[in-house]
Task: inverse folding
């Protein structure tokens, strides 16, 4: 996503889809959430991965700042 969002055409399409600028920290997260979640599901399926779990058995996540997608589910290879 970091590479894709640098492409002006992709960034414009993404902004139109979510109704905000791709790296706009003030944009309502609710506007981006459905598209970003669907992108995540598609990537997970495409690479044949499963969600990584932490010691408590919950899905492990990572957070970044200044990116189009700020929260990522960590993935691991399916058995």
Result:
């Amino acid at each position: 996503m970091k590479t894709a969002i640098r492409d002006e055409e992709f960034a414009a399409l993404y902004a139109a889809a979510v109704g905000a600028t791709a790296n706009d920290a003030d944009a309502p997260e609710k506007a981006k959430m459905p598209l970003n979640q669907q992108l995540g599901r598609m990537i997970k399926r495409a690479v044949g991965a499963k969600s990584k779990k932490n010691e408590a058995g919950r899905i492990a996540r990572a957070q970044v700042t200044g990116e189009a997608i700020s929260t990522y589910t960590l993935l691991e290879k399916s058995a």
